[in-house]
């Protein structure tokens, strides 16, 4: 099949492009490059041996999307990964987040449906689940729009929109993928996560300490009700996550379908840091700090629906993710800026 990946030059998008190409599909990337680099296309080409078109454009702009269809279409599917995703920033700039994260969906749906796409795959988040009593979260667990930040709320709002659109468009397969915590990089070391400025998320922060760009890892909270007192998350290797997109697209379930993409294995902050230290063969300086506002004790999923229905299961471990993240970071100490 031929897929348009909106936000395709980003962290998850680039890995998804590689997975789709390696499965024999064709991809075109549309990205405004606000949080991604044009160098990604050449790197994807180097990994896969295939040419990739990257169009620089805004996925809220119907005209820009239509132009991509004119030049590179027709497409069977749109994979929508174009979003603002900085949780802290989203609480400061809610209008920007709702505007971008919803209008991308509206524009991609309008143009895509007018041009006859069959599938629409949406990148959502495990943070839409609202009740810790439901752990591990299944797709049936309670969700809310009453979440702690505008980023997560915008993702849940999108899901609501997509469910309604799917109901009245039975020829369109709408699939929502709820990601847990994506980590790691392609094992080639050619593509990986490249956050601008100081990273907010744990694994990229640890990576920057490992290359000496940041001084010490801060462990946010050691008094949680967990085995070692630190927070538990479901860290999924980005290559596994990318393959989940391929499986979902190939299945093409009619109607509106939701899948959790995670490992189902809770890993603590200290376990993740220990895994990274093993990968680099040395200890990292750490500070045990207070809890970070807005953090939950634990979040991890039951990924069995994706295994049952898509035949997809995460295969890689946190140690694989640490090894691959380190390869990416050590080979590209300035990320794509150094390319
Ligand atoms: C965050 C987002 C979530 C998003 C996900 C993407 C919040 C509230 N949630 O999840 O919406 O989908 O990233 O991966 O930001 N930690 C440290 N030190 C650090 C950074 C983090 O100890 O420097 C801890 C946190 O307290 C948490 C764990 O590491 O227990 C994971 O944090 P992080 O990587 O930021 O992800 P989430 O907060 O789970």
Unreliably modeled segments:
none
Strand order of the largest sheet: 3-2-1-4-5-6-11
- Shape descriptor reads globular
Radius of gyration: 19 Å
Q: Main β-sheet: number of strands, strand sense, barrel status?
A: 7 strands, parallel
Distance between the termini: 31 Å
Helix count, DSSP H or I runs of 4 or more residues: 11
Average pLDDT for all residues: 97
User: Strand fraction band?
Assistant: 15-25%
Order of helices and strands: EHEHEHEHHEHEEHEEEHEEHEEHH
Number of strands: 14
Helix content: 25-40%
By helix and strand content, what is the structural category? Answer: alpha/beta
The molecules bound to the chains, other than polymers, are: uridine-diphosphate-N-acetylglucosamine
List the helices and strands and how they pair.
Blueprint: E1 2-6, H1 11-22, E2 26-31, H2 39-48, E3 53-56, H3 62-72, E4 77-80, H4 87-92, H5 94-114, E5 119-125, H6 150-168, E6 173-179, E7 181-183, H7 202-210, E8 217-220, E9 232-233, E10 235-237, H8 238-251, E11 255-261, E12 267-268, H9 269-280, E13 286-289, E14 298-299, H10 304-310, H11 318-331
Helix pairs in contact: 1-2, 1-8, 5-6, 7-9, 7-11, 9-11
The site of uridine-diphosphate-N-acetylglucosamine (UD1) has 21 residues, from helix 6, strand 7, helix 7 and strand 8.
């Amino acid at each position: 099949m031929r897929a348009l990946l909106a936000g395709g030059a980003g962290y998850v998008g680039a890995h998804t492009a590689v997975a789709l190409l390696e499965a024999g599909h064709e991809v075109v990337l549309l990205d405004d490059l606000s949080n991604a680099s044009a160098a990604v296309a050449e790197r994807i080409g180097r990994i896969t041996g295939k040419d990739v078109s990257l169009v620089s454009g805004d996925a809220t702009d119907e005209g820009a999307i239509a132009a991509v269809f004119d030049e590179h279409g027709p497409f069977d599917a749109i994979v929508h990964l174009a979003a603002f995703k900085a949780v802290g920033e989203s609480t400061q700039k809610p209008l920007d987040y709702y505007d971008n994260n919803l209008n991308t969906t509206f524009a991609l749906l309008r143009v895509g449906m007018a041009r006859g796409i069959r599938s629409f795959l949406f990148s959502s988040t495990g943070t839409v689940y609202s009740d810790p009593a439901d752990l591990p979260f299944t797709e049936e667990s309670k969700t809310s729009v009453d979440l702690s930040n505008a980023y997560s709320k915008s993702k849940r709002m999108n899901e609501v929109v997509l469910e309604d659109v799917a109901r009245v468009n039975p020829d369109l397969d709408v699939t929502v993928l709820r990601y847990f915590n994506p980590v790691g990089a392609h094992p080639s070391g050619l593509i990986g996560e490249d956050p601008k400025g100081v990273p907010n998320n744990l694994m990229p922060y640890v990576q920057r300490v490992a290359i000496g760009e940041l001084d010490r890892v801060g462990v946010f909270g050691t008094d949680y009700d967990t085995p070692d007192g630190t927070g538990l998350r479901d860290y999924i290797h980005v290559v596994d996550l990318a393959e989940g997109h391929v499986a979902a697209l190939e299945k093409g379930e009619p109607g509106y379908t939701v899948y959790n993409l995670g490992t189902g294995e809770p890993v603590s902050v200290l376990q993740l840091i220990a895994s990274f230290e093993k990968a680099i063969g040395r200890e990292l300086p750490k500070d045990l700090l207070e809890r970070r506002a807005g953090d939950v004790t634990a979040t991890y999923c039951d990924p069995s629906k994706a295994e049952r229905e898509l035949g997809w299961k995460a295969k890689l471990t946190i140690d694989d993710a640490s090894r691959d993240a380190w390869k990416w970071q050590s080979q590209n100490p300035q990320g794509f800026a150094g390319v």
